[in-house]
Design a protein that fits this description.
By secondary structure, the chain is an all-alpha fold. Helices cover about 75% and strands about 0% of the residues. The protein is globular, with a radius of gyration of 21 Å. The N terminus and C terminus are likely disordered.
Amino acid sequence: MPEGGTSIPNTAASPSAGGLPDTAPAAAGGGGRTATPEHRGTPAARRTSLLVTLLLGGLTATPPLAMDMYLPALPEVTRSLHAPAATIQLTLTACLAGMAFGQLVVGPMSDRWGRRRPLLIGLAVYIVATALCAFAPTVELLVACRLAQGLAGSAGIVIARAVARDLYDGMAMARFFSTLMLISGVAPIVAPLIGGQVLRITDWRGVFVVLTVLGLLLTAVVWAKLPETLPPAERHGGGVGEALGSMRRLLADRAFSGYMLVGGFAFASLFAYVAASPFVVQEIYGASPQTFSLLFGLNSIGLMIMGQVNGRILVGRVRLDTVLGIGLAVVVVAAVVLLLMSLGVFGEVGLVPVAAALFVLMSAMGITLPNTQTLALMRTRHAAGSASALLGATGFLVGAIASPLVGIAGEDTAVPMAVVQLVAALVALGCFLGMCRPWNGRTGGKGGGV
């Protein structure tokens, strides 16, 4: 594969650089040159930085697109393939499981062979799997194709985080993850809206056709414009044994494992909402696919706004652990309110109070998820691909387990969704307090070194 012409070295960046490090010394064999201050300030340098940031945001948006464009069609898929809701929700579980296990493979691969090659291969397979989803005649084949889609799509998630770690450190990394959340947060807003509009002119299979086209466009831009950020001199030469050893060392760090589990169970609470909300909003409260799409988009806007509050206001002024603790507490409170409403404690409630509680829960994710990832990645100076793989795999694996649980009692109650969200949030909070020990300043954003 071509290496994109240039190589960006692994060095900390200033948040004002917009996506590139302050200096760019030549990588071993990369043919680059040292960037002078004058060169850093040129419009060409700023455009390149912005393009890299947008591409990484696009890669992190791949999972929301694959998941959320499909959500308004879930009730239709149950009728089209003559399968119960719990079985159709396995298509979400398969995609999540694929994204989880795929990251464990792609992450170490990117540490050994660089970021571009595994990414481009993964995107190519993702396109093929997504196209096959559009023609799946049975629910079993659709589940299999969604598994392949998740396995291949994981490349974009894990490598985008690894590239961010290549470029940034400390508070700059926290701000950059908040910026990525702003970009990738557009996907959950527009994806259900696009899916709802696609369903006006075609059936659920047309959603996968649109996803295939978007995958082709993203792959073309990545091929042409995304540079290699891991110079050959910094790549790992070992095989499977070295990759497993690197992961074992990361897991041995209590704080890293704690943040990994916090992020995983926070994702479980989020994906319980993703899996159950189409049925809760449309089947229980009688909303149309378009209304569901609008509500889903509003929740994503809340997540984006809080992500920007985190990156632009809180980071650098408040300890990351403090912000993370506040976010987890809000998620727990929102989940408790949802459970009480679902059980009828407040009497008969309509869609508006339920939607408001979901909005608060999703908004809190905007300060929970980026800080979890930042605090975990600050624990490792090497093997960013393996660290990113463990973070992503944990989140998607726990999410894959949580997704089918929300439909265990059928389509006529929101109680399972609220229970799964509350349990996941409480476990995340327990891991944060018991393993990360936020009162200990040495785990609160000092970047410890694994």
